[in-house]
Design goal:
By secondary structure, this protein is α/β, with parallel strands linked by helices. The protein contains 18 helices and eleven strands. Strands 1, 4, 5, 6, 7, 8, 9, 10 and 11 form a nine-stranded mixed sheet that branches. It has a two-stranded antiparallel sheet with strand order 2-3.
């Protein structure tokens, strides 16, 4: 509409100029000059607007150059896989590059350091490479600190962490009153109790059924009452023995099965108990930094030149100051994360470090545990040169990945536990570990009971031949007499009367 009106206005002016040309030549020339100037101004403005529009489109569609990325080798953030790099940070970098549309090339930091400032104010490590322009971005578990924020730009944190303690389980757990039960699980103890009661009951029944053990139930007293059977089984379990011993083959088979079961059971128990106590040189409960600072039996330290050390050094908390002074006095620093984990596994050393890294060590080594207390919460960020326009875009991309759940997925992917039970220092013996011995005991009890029945059947057949009765009748009478006799000292005549009444 504006362009049409301008053309209409110029056309009108031209008609006016033509009408006046005969009467006022000077006015006509002036009008033509003004019209030419206005037309040139309109063309100039149109060119400027068009150039700005096309320049803006070019800026939006321009492909950025390849970015130089510096990182540090540390599991599981950045690891070598042939000629490629993999890990949490590499996956994170790939997702961010897709969102922002840039290409990159990853290189490991030359001096193998994260970045700290020396006495002359110079920075080393990944921070130093970014400051000197040797790298465009630094992506690694870089802690966001005030000192680093002054010299480089830091994005929004992509992971939250804190400071905690890593140590062996045997010096982090308190000794309980019933630790002597730990060699076996609760299910195993229940199985042992059932086996004990079942064996005692079998001995009691077999010694009553077997005529070799109890030949004359009318006049003899059975030596194996149920209480004596319980006592005999307990004596065999403790390798003490308790007489009298069974005389019948059936009773001896059951006793031999129980003796074998007891020997193997005790061997497994003492073996597991010895394993659980072999490295317990000290039982010190370390649940947090207060416990660590108030003891002198366990050495502790952190990574040299790390932000963890700076936290304790700059803290006004008296407990943290004591921890720093102790580490500075004993020079108990470690040069790498792997060294701290190794010393913690060896025992009598507590490694202080980032809780996220300690969680990874716990997932890889079953004998290690992280204290529940976490202090000095901070975040891991991506570093760029100071004033770089990439910082805002990186922060937005990280927030988008966090809101979409991608960061949580990457955390679960790379922090998955590979800790296996057989790698642990000690684990309670499961019931299936003794299933062979339970099976042997069951077979022994069954065989003993079968032999007792066969012994009683053999005697019943002989008695049936003498008394000229059927074998089943005599066997039934024997079973009734042996299993229902309440008073073994009952006079013989009373027994005969009872038989006649029956």
């Amino acid at each position: 509409m504006t362009e049409t009106s301008d053309h209409t206005q110029i056309t009108g002016e031209l008609i006016g100029v033509c009408l006046k040309s005969d009467t006022d030549p000077v006015g006509t020339s002036r009008a033509l000059v003004r019209m030419q100037i206005r037309r040139m101004m309109m063309l100039f403005g149109f060119c400027v607007l068009s150039a700005g529009f096309f320049l803006d489109m070019g800026a939006c569609t321009a492909v950025p150059t390849e970015l130089r990325i510096t990182s540090i080798k540390q599991e599981p953030y950045t690891m070598s896989k042939g000629t490629q790099m993999e890990g949490f940070c590499m996956d994170l970098l790939s997702e961010i590059a897709k969102k922002l549309g840039f290409k990159y090339k990853v290189q490991l930091v030359k001096d193998g350091s994260y970045g700290r400032q020396d006495e002359n104010g110079n920075w080393n490590g990944m921070i130093g490479e970014v400051v000197r322009g040797e790298a465009d971005l630094a992506i690694a578990p870089l802690t966001l600190t005030a000192a680093r924020e002054k010299v480089v730009g830091m994005s929004k944190p992509f992971m939250q962490t804190g400071i905690s303690i890593l140590l062996r389980k045997d010096i982090s757990e308190e000794t309980g009153f019933f630790d002597f039960l730990t060699p076996f699980t609760a299910e195993t103890w229940v199985g042992i109790l059932i086996a004990y009661l079942g064996t005692a009951a079998c001995i009691f029944i077999v010694t009553r059924l077997s005529p070799c053990e109890w030949n004359q139930p009318q006049s003899e007293q059975n030596r194996f009452s149920f209480l004596h059977s319980l006592w005999y089984t307990a004596g065999a379990l403790t390798l003490q023995g308790a007489g009298p011993h069974p005389r019948a083959v059936s009773g001896r088979v059951i006793c031999c099965s129980w003796w074998i079961f007891s020997i193997v059971l005790l061997a497994c128990y003492f073996s597991n108990l010895s394993s659980s106590k072999s490295s317990d040189t000290t039982h010190l409960t370390v649940k947090g930094f207060d416990d660590l600072a108030n003891q002198d039996m366990i050495e502790y330290g952190c990574l040299a030149g790390s932000s963890t050390l700076a936290f304790f050094k700059n803290s006004n908390n008296p407990v943290y100051r004591r921890i720093y002074e102790h580490m500075e006095r004993t020079r108990s620093f470690v040069s790498s994360m792997d060294e701290g984990v190794r010393r913690a596994k060896e025992g009598n050393f507590a490694f202080i470090g980032e809780s996220v890294s300690l969680d990874l060590a716990v997932a890889r080594h079953c004998e290690l545990v992280r204290a529940h207390e976490v202090v000095g919460m901070r975040g891991y960020s991506i570093a760029a040169s100071l004033g770089s326009p990439l910082i805002k875009n990186l922060s937005v991309a990280i927030l988008q990945l966090s809101e979409a759940g991608e960061l949580a997925y990457l955390r679960s992917k790379w922090w998955a536990s590979s800790c296996m039970a057989d790698k642990a220092k000690f684990s309670a013996m499961q019931p299936h570990s003794l299933k062979g011995m339970f099976l042997i005991l069951s077979l022994g009890l069954g065989l003993g009971a079968l032999l007792a029945v066969l012994e009683l059947t053999s005697k019943s057949r002989r008695s049936a031949a003498e008394q000229k009765k059927s074998c089943c009748t005599v066997l039934t009478e024997e079973l009734s007499l042996r299993l229902r006799t309440n008073n073994p000292n009952k006079p013989q005549e009373n027994v005969d009367k009872d038989k006649e009444k029956a």
